[in-house]
Amino acid sequence: MNHANLKKRTIMRHPGLAAILVAVALAANARPPTTSSDIDRIVHSMSLDEKVGQMTQLDISMLLVPGANTIAFDTNRMREAIVEYGIGSIFNPGLGHPMPLKEWHYLIRTVQGMATTETPHKIPILYGIDSIHGASFMEGGTLYPQGMALAATCDPPLVQACAHVSAMETRAAGVRWTFAPVLGVARQPLWPRFPETLGEDPYLASVLGAAEVRGFQGRNLAAPTAVAACMKHYMGYSFPFNGHDRTLALIPDYYLREYFLPPFAAAVRAGVATVMINSGEVNGVPVHASHYLLTDVLRHELGFRGVAVSDWHDVIRLHTWHHVAATPEDAVGMAVKAGLDMSMVPDDYSFPTLLKKAVEDGKIPESRIDESVRRILTLKMELGLFKDPYPEAAAVKNFARPEYRKVALRAAEEAMTLLKNEGNFLPLKKDDKVLVAGPTANTLFSLNGCWSYTWQGTNAEWYPPGEPTVVQAIRKEIGATNVVYDEGVDFEGMDISTANAVADAKNADVVVLCLGENSYAETPGDINDLDLPAGQQALAMDLYATGKPVVLVLLEGRGRIIRKIVPDARAILMGYWPGSQGAQAIAHVLFGDFDPSGKLPFTYNRYQNNFLTYDRDYTDGRPEAPDDTPQFEFGTGLSYTTFAYSNLKLTSPVLKGTGKLQVSVDVSNTGKREGMETVELFTHEFYASIAPPLKRLRAFKKIDLQPGQTRTVHFTLTARDLAFVNAQSQLATETGDFEVEIGNLEQTFRYEE
Ligand code: BGC
What we know:
CATH architecture of the largest domain: Alpha-Beta Barrel
CATH topology of the largest domain: TIM Barrel
CATH class of the largest domain: Alpha Beta
Radius of gyration: 27 Å
Distance between the termini: 75 Å
Largest sheet: 6 strands, mixed
CATH superfamily of the largest domain: Glycoside hydrolase, family 3, N-terminal domain
Bound molecules: beta-D-glucopyranose
Number of strands: 27
Number of helices: 22
Strand order of the largest sheet: 12-17-16-15-13-14
């Protein structure tokens, strides 16, 4: 350890000095900006160096003693970043893993102390973090389900509540910006970030994405319960042609606007403060270089007024990866001209240096730089950073409250999606003898997934003690004596002890077989084969051969192909990556304490080479192609009770122009227990100028019904709900015959312009 640095660190940690720094800083900002003209005045008085600095975002490691295993600031490196380069933003946990709040506060106080005392305009730092499914880099933070699981809940207020918990815990650490929500729609099943999304449907993702934005930001970014949200990754990232992370997407303009734009548009309408740009290419153009997407569409069409930040290294990659910029300087110029405000550089000073040169060489007008700086400073003002950039006492008390775990548990429970339940095999009896087997049965990785305490989520050291795995939760649920556990095979399906599992199955009443994926994030999660590894399937086959009933529990980020092991499973429960409370949720559902109500938010494919989505068109569903059906349709989700739909009514057979069509349907609980049902309204146009999809989700409502209870659910349809993007890239509703479909009921009507 470097003792010189240790000494510096000890001085910096001295509480008295910290208090003085705070006082000096607050005095320096005695009159913090409160209006846009105040921001304009600051921007006009800033030097070019200061301005390009504000547009720069660095990883915190750039300020720390290299290699130290605690937060140890190197004052020279820190001064270089904050004072010499005047950088505007820092991100990441210092050590790559969660830190206690105390450590976060020390970190935030230190950087803000220097920024607000030693820089010419005393501008505070905007600190960002990946609180993707909870404040995973804050020790003790609450991890709720990943996006795909949240989408299965079809419960906007619950999704909003999860994001709000995340906001409160993130802000409690002194951090006021999260790089979430993930708004790419999941239409490429191989893609390793599939589980971070809110499903394949643009409407569902729009409603839930907007709920997340509201949950993060609240009504007022300055409130100690709010953080700025960052919709990402704009746009087309989720549809790589070959399924690999950060590769080429080929998306015609109409398709881009029909399927990928709506969640971003909805987030803009919800007031999202920032956007992160897609690292990949759309139609050969890296999005970081696309003036069309970053300015014409995002700013001019959607009216986004916030800050556009690059993703990791992506500006320089216009030169080094994408080869669209011949030099690093061209890369910087290209991105800024396209519409970038801030570069997540994040580990050198190339960006501010080259940007300054580009302005001095007359390649970029300084007025363009001013625009970005204005946006960045406005966000800092809105977040209350000029008034008080330090961790706030009012925020700290909102950390790790017991009720947050209840929110995470509820979300995990509502996410649970029952895909198959032959002969009502589930729920299991609590006195059953159970063999719990499979590679996802006794690990926290497959419950939490990526961005869980570490980037990849696969470092056991950082998981909090006491969080149960599935087998532990089942033991808690029914008592340890009736539960035997055998891993059987590992994630890759390598044979460890199938024979033991088979032998143990013989003494069990039922086998709960937990299959699926380990945790992964981004490129390390790339796969070339969507099949569930053969060894995992073989374990299922061997267990089926014992004749004992087998329940499959799938813990996986993607829908790995399981065609061969579906028929003999008595029941299949999709658990996704359900977060810290996921194992309990699984136990509650398996043993009947919670009635499953999740709806599959993506189309679970049956074949490797036939990727379908629910909104496929007629060419995909032709009768002469009998196998052309997915394994499980979008929206699949059984309950322990039964629901019946009746009386689908439309107020008129014709919807005209700007009029409204009221739709109602009766939903009854015809079973024996209380249950929740998501009532989904789909529409379908019989003929249109672009081959119409077989159905599109246009509205949904989640209701709770007692046994025997019937409720009438109402929807209102307007022309906007029937619209699609036509060949001219315009949103249009064409005159024609439509069908509305709810449950197993259908009604036709006509729309006339
Ligand atoms: C990811 C982003 C993330 C960023 C900062 C990138 O590698 O693509 O989603 O926000 O890192 O950690």
